[in-house]
Amino acid sequence: MTFENTLEFAKQLDSQDPLNKYQDEFIFPQVNRKKVIYFTGNSLGLQPKRTKGYVDEVMNDWANLAVEGHFYAEKPWWDYQERFANPLSKIVGALPSEITVMNTLTVNLHLLMVSFYRPTKTRYKIICEEKAFPSDQYMFQSQVHFHSRNIGIKPEEAIVEIKRREGEHNIRLEDVLAKIEEVGEELALVLIGGVNYYTGQVFDMKTITAAGHKAGAYVGWDLAHAAGNVKLELHDWDVDFAAWCSYKYMNSGPGNASGCFIHEKHHNNPELPRFAGWWGHNKERRFKMEQTFNPIHGADGWQISNLPVLSLAPYLASVEMFDEIGMEALIQKRDKITSYLEFILHEIDKEVDSSFEIITPSNPSERASQLSVLLHGEGRSLFDYLMENGVITDWREPNVIRLAPVPLYTSFEDMYHFGQILKSGIVG
After folding, report:
1. pLDDT tens-digit profile of 32-58?
2. 247 labelled as ligand-binding?
3. Per the similarity annotation, which family is this (predicted)?
């Protein structure tokens, strides 16, 4: 499609967009009494209007039923998480039995590493990407420290970062594959962010997973920026495990519950260690208070504690909206609106003295709902100007803004107006 940087053209695109109506499903902050242009769904998604009803339902059941809500609520609490299995399996490409919801993201990654990072004196290395999100880096370091007494390894020996080439912003697939082959028989685990939080690069998860398995390692994915954003086929790609937060693209609220995937090939493996708790115990016998742990078959067998239903209610509201729409429709709009934003940036670049360098890959298969933009010749003052004028975006040192045009609630008209505000912030 040939784009145009005009308000009329942007409105025309919105009129043709079948998802345009979903903007009315969300609550937008206001700046200067106007609805903001919201680019930070890659950090915290907006609140769906339907969320309050789901939370109120739990509150009312608690008030009216108290403890009996576990069994007699409209959505009984004791199996509340089971309502996520079908819709989430469609979002991440899994079998329903491979999905559970529990805890928060880094907690779940730690728990999954109990099962899938089992270092020995000869096979102990972890491959991750350079500039992984800091929480992942801290997790790797602490996991290695935890095992160091038994196998005598240090983080600097065990953690292998795949580097970007000099002068490049993104990691090449061939470099990932070469590093996996190089580490070879010393490799215990590959654990990478499916979408890099800083650059927005989407990794080839299928190819990397196959390479990790060929080397004899387990392969897992941190899908914080991928779930609800990228087409995933975790079961068919033979991924061992994955986890994701729900408060970014899936709009469940700040710090909310995490989803987990454990491939069915691991469900019947009694040799696979896990940290157990009573909510993962045989559901039909859970309240028998038996002494020996008998895990639920499937991913639910990795649960530990009674689930925070008040936290799960907003997540369920959003997941059911995703189920209405489907990932194919979301991805179709995602690609179109991200391309339109890219076009707007290039058009404004021609009209101002500063220059914009988009460090997110230009190949649509290597990016999703994020463009990370280096603002050459500009600094923090431009970010402040955008925020003061109703563009909610994200600043990363030294001079990068991250723009995430989430297809559920951003419009093509938003992209046009952002370009005009950006231009005025530079020219003015």
Report:
1. 999 999 999 999 999 999 999 999 999
2. yes
3. Belongs to the kynureninase family.
State yes or no: 361 annotated in a binding site. no
Q: Is 393 annotated as a binding residue?
A: no
Q: Look at the alpha carbons of 176, 180, 181, 182 in this order and tell me if their dihedral is positive or negative.
A: positive
Q: Are residues 166 and 314 in the same domain?
A: yes
Residue 363, annotated ligand binder?
A: no
264 and 284 in a single domain? The answer is yes
Q: Is 106 annotated as a binding residue?
A: yes
Looking at the structure, do residues 143 and 93 belong to the same domain, yes or no? yes
Among 325, 351, 367, give the residue marking a domain's end: 325
- Residue 127 maps to a domain: yes
Specify whether 92 is located in the same domain as 228.
yes
CA nearest neighbour of 279 among 307, 260, 252, 299: 307
Q: Could you tell me the pLDDT band of residue 428, with boundaries at 50, 70 and 90?
A: low
For residues 134 and 142, what is the distance between their CA atoms, to the nearest angstrom? 12
- The answer to whether 140 is annotated as binding is no
Spatial CB neighbours of 373, under 8 Å, sequence gap ≥ 6: 345, 356, 357, 358, 359, 400, 401, 402, 403
**Per-residue pLDDT at 419:** 97
Q: Is 105 annotated as a binding residue?
A: yes
Q: Is 136 annotated as a binding residue?
A: yes
Are 259 and 391 in a shared domain? no
Q: Is 395 annotated as a binding residue?
A: no
Q: Model pTM?
A: 0.96
Which range marks the domain in which residue 139 is found? 79-325
